[in-house]
TrEMBL record:
Modified residues (4-aspartylphosphate): 54
SUPFAM superfamilies: C-terminal effector domain of the bipartite response regulators, CheY-like
Domain of life: Bacteria
Pfam families, per the entry: GerE, Response_reg
Record's protein name: Response regulator transcription factor
Keyword field contains DNA-binding: yes
A biological process term (GO) from this entry: phosphorelay signal transduction system
CDD domains tied to this protein: LuxR_C_like (cd06170), REC_NarL-like (cd17535)
Keywords in alphabetical order: DNA-binding, Phosphoprotein, Transcription, Transcription regulation
GO molecular function, one term: DNA binding
Length: 215
């Protein structure tokens, strides 16, 4: 049984989340918090497996609440669940110790899967969040690329993300599951990568991307 604390300052939203979670086998809501302070206090009191944390709440807010929860008990996992996806907020939450970051626009199945994954010790990021982090990392640590037909190949953030997972040895179904997208979408992105890098297979795509400084 995964024990969950739901922290959100909007009563209707909080009630909807709690109602959803209580219909799932293996999930139990052990507390509800309407502020950052109460989230930290209730986490210390109930020792949940996962705190589902909103960011914008009265008082200290979700980032500081996350920091306090993790500092008090590192075994408690925090999954940020919010409408905000600005770079500074994402990084602040992750640096505070959050084990995942999902957006409230996510389907219910994605939220449930995210909770289970975070409880199991995995890191969970909404696809758009992961893409933003990839782009930010590229801007920070960009290296010169070898030319391809007179110019550097340009991959999108999602294409780079998927190719990075290919480099880690993940199959298309595994990538699709990791990013919460369809397998056909993964295949389409890889076809675009092959075309841009002028290669015909996954292995050559990875090696060519490395030669160009894209991975």
């Amino acid at each position: 049984m995964i024990r969950i604390l739901v922290a959100d300052d909007h009563p209707v939203v909080r009630a909807g989340i709690v109602g959803l979670l209580e219909t799932e086998d293996g999930l139990e809501v052990v507390g509800e918090a309407e502020s950052g302070e109460s989230a930290a206090a209730l986490a210390a009191e109930h020792s949940p497996d996962v705190v589902l944390m909103d960011l914008r709440m009265p008082g200290i807010g979700g980032v500081e609440a996350t920091r306090r929860v993790v500092a008090d008990d590192p075994s408690v996992r925090v999954l940020v669940f919010t409408t905000y996806e600005a770079d500074d907020q994402i990084l602040a939450a992750i640096e505070a110790g959050a084990g995942g970051y999902l957006l409230k626009a996510a389907p219910a199945a994605e939220l449930i899967a995210g909770i289970r994954a975070v409880a199991a010790g995995q890191t969970v990021l909404a696809p758009s969040i992961a893409a933003q982090l990839v782009v930010r990392a590229q801007r920070t640590a960009r290296r010169p690329a070898d030319p391809v037909r007179g110019g550097s190949p340009q991959l999108t953030a999602r294409e780079t993300e998927i190719l990075g997972l290919v480099a880690q040895g993940l199959s298309n179904p595994e990538i699709a599951a990791r990013l919460f997208i369809g397998e056909s979408t993964v295949k389409t992105h890889l076809l675009h990568v092959f075309e841009k890098l002028e290669v015909g297979d996954r292995t050559r795509a990875v090696t060519r991307a490395m030669e160009c400084g894209l991975l």
